[in-house]
Description:
It is a single chain. The protein is 53% helix and 2% strand. The protein is mainly alpha-helical. The chain has one domain: MOB kinase activator (Butyryl-CoA Dehydrogenase, subunit A, domain 3, Up-down Bundle), CATH 1.20.140. β1 and β2 (97-98) form a beta hairpin. A two-stranded antiparallel ribbon has the order 1-2. The protein is globular, with a radius of gyration of 17 Å. α1 runs antiparallel to α7 (180-196). The chain has helices spanning 2-9, 27-40, 45-48, 57-79, 115-130, 148-176, 180-196, 209-213, and strands spanning 92-93, 97-98. It starts with a helix and ends with a helix.
Amino acid sequence: xxxxxxxxxxxxxxxxxxxxxFEPGTQRFELYKKAQASxxxxxDLKAVVQLPPGESINxxxxxxxxxxxxxxxxxxxxxxxxCTEKSCPIMSGGLKYEYRWQDDHKYKKPTKLSAPQYMCMxxxxxxxxxxxxxxxxxxxGVPFPKQFQQVCTKIxxxxxxxxxxxxxxxxxxxxxxxxxxxxxxCYKHFYYFIREFSLVDHRELEPLVRMSxxxxx
Length: 217
């Protein structure tokens, strides 16, 4: 399992937020196990992300959103000691891309934040959404809301920005920790998933487009 591989490289005590778990015995848990088994099997990642026959697309997306949240949490949690107010006073991806925070609650307008502040707001915001039964229902027979995929697009778009920041500003640290292969695989899996279901606007992908071009993406 990718999460286990990452834990072997990263300090699991530094996970940015507690892991969101799937309840055993639920359809979501079974889908999660199916997705992880495919990952472990060494199948091509393009094939791994495809919707299994007969399964609900919203359940499949929900499982992956939660799993990516957990894994990116683990990656950033370990990187966070290198990502400080001093080293990263702006949440950015190089000189060309700057990401401002807006959540319609505390920050009603796009607001310039340091990378650590942005990450903190982002993880709190995602955690609130995935724990909200009205958006991510876990009870059998309870339908997903009409705006579910729209919400997931917003979550995944913002999680993509974590990859952008980590790759562009902290890749030396990833290499020094010997975690390059694991982070690359996690990003590749994430990239193929969002492309398979058109969940992130292609313009958002531009900061890392050279990487993905090498994969035929």
